[in-house]
Design brief:
- By secondary structure, this protein is of the alpha+beta class.
- It has two domains: about 1-55 and about 250-390, no CATH class; about 90-210, no CATH class.
- Helix content is about 55%, strand content about 20%.
- It has a six-stranded mixed β-barrel.
- Strand 2 (about 85-100) and strand 3 (about 105-110) form a beta hairpin.
- Helix 2 crosses helix 13 (about 300-345) and helix 13 (about 300-345) runs antiparallel to helix 14 (about 365-385).
- The chain is elongated and about 100 Å long.
- Belongs to the ABC-4 integral membrane protein family. LolC/E subfamily.
- It is a multi-pass membrane protein.
- It holds the Pfam family FtsX.
- Keywords: Cell membrane, Membrane, Transmembrane, Transmembrane helix.
């Protein structure tokens, strides 16, 4: 009798109208699961993309600073500690105010070997707009971000004035004529708008303080205090190893807030999905009220009847969760081209977001969503099937 009931409800004997009702009942579970999966993929992808952009373009995973009193072979020492070191790049840091007309913008200048620096993975993280030009005369070649160039009202080939900030070896600011040889963008406005690049050989002329020279380390693994301490222990006391979290604390604080917000949304939607499951259970029991009364009259234990409905509800919920996960994956992958187009559209309202990020399908994350939602669904189903005990055999 119970097998016939299950077969009529969710098995091969289910009629077309009944199956359609089941699909309609599952849709809220499917849609809420898909929403969570899309949000999870987008937020996690954006966070990973922002961290990667800052790692490659701004400060590396770790930065080594020194006062220059004890010269050592930094690359050899660092590589002896870790095998996952992708890159160790010398950088000369400086600061300046850029003037063009009535506009002035503070800049962080990075002196690098542009021929080798903008290659490999970094070449994929940075987009250059237009053709890079050459400079004639004594002007300082400058690679300027698209956002800064727009703020100053200049473009490739234009000239501007840089007021170099003293770095300890000078006591007064120094004006320098610079020429924009290329305009770039990383896709993230917060990173682009205050950074510019010059050739390392030119940076050495203007920023000669030993503390201006740093080593940027790019690793395959995320920031780790353990790795940071390992590198620090291999270097003389005059060297300091700082992580990306320490050089960009505001960025990481904002990313942490985003992760907490996603977790809160995840919990709220899981509770909402539990409510939908509870509704499905109540509708099942209400529709089969006469059948349940008959089963009790025939002597079937209440526990066995309740267990049967629990299995049916959780079975339908599991199908809805799996379907929602796959739909979420499809939506996320399908909207990726749209995000890329929006990232290049120059919409001011979207300038604070990184839209050019990689969407990575994670089975582990999907399994976590499935387990959490299923656990909430089981609790909701257990509450809903308690109505079975209220049905009398003669109802």
């Amino acid at each position: 009798m119970i097998r016939m009931l299950v077969s009529r409800r969710v098995g091969t004997r289910t009629t077309a109208p009944a199956r359609l009702r089941q699909i309609v009942r599952m849709m809220p579970v499917v849609l809420t699961t898909a929403l969570v999966v899309v949000a999870q993929l987008f937020v996690s992808g954006m966070i990973e993309g922002i961290v990667r952009k800052y790692t490659l373009v701004s400060d590396g995973t770790y930065t080594i600073r020194s006062n220059g009193s004890e010269p050592v072979d930094v690359p050899s020492l660092v590589r002896s500690v870790r095998s996952d070191i992708r890159e160790i790049v010398p950088v000369i840091n400086g600061a300046a105010l850029a003037y063009a007309g009535d506009e002035a913008v503070p800049l962080r200048l990075k002196g690098v070997d542009t021929e080798t620096y903008f290659s490999g993975e970094r070449a994929e993280a940075i987009n250059f707009h237009g053709i890079r030009t050459t400079v004639s005369g004594a002007a300082l070649p400058l690679l300027l971000s698209k956002d800064t160039a727009a703020e100053l009202g200049v473009g490739t080939g234009d000239r501007l004035t840089l007021m170099l900030i003293p770095d300890g070896t000078r006591t007064a600011a120094r004006p320098v004529l610079a020429a924009v040889v290329a305009v770039f963008s990383t896709g993230y406005s917060e990173l682009d708008k205050r950074i510019a690049f010059v050739e390392a050989k030119d940076a050495r002329k203007y920023f000669s303080s030993p503390s201006a020279v740093v080593w940027e380390i790019v690793t395959d693994s995320p920031v780790s205090s353990h790795i940071q301490n390992l590198i620090q222990n291999e270097l003389p006391a005059s060297y300091e190893v700082v992580s990306l979290k320490e050089t960009q604390p505001t960025i990481f604080e904002n990313l942490l807030v985003s992760q907490r917000t996603l977790t809160l949304v995840f919990v709220l939607i899981a509770i909402l999905a539990g409510y939908f499951v509870s509704t499905i259970g109540q509708e099942f029991i209400q529709d089969d009220r006469s059948a349940i009364a008959t089963l009790k009259l025939m002597g079937f234990p209440r526990r066995e009847i309740s267990w049967t409905y629990l299995v049916m509800i959780i079975g339908m919920t599991s199908v809805g969760l799996v379907t929602g996960i796959f739909i979420g994956w499809i939506i996320a992958l399908a909207t990726k081209p749209l995000l890329l187009n929006l990232s290049t559209a120059g919409i001011p309202a979207l300038s604070q977001y990184l839209l050019d990020f990689t969407i990575s399908i994670s089975v582990v994350d999907a399994l976590m969503v499935f387990i959490v939602f299923l656990a909430v669904s089981v609790l909701s189903a257990l509450l809903s099937i308690r109505r079975v005990q209220d049905i009398m055999p003669l109802d």
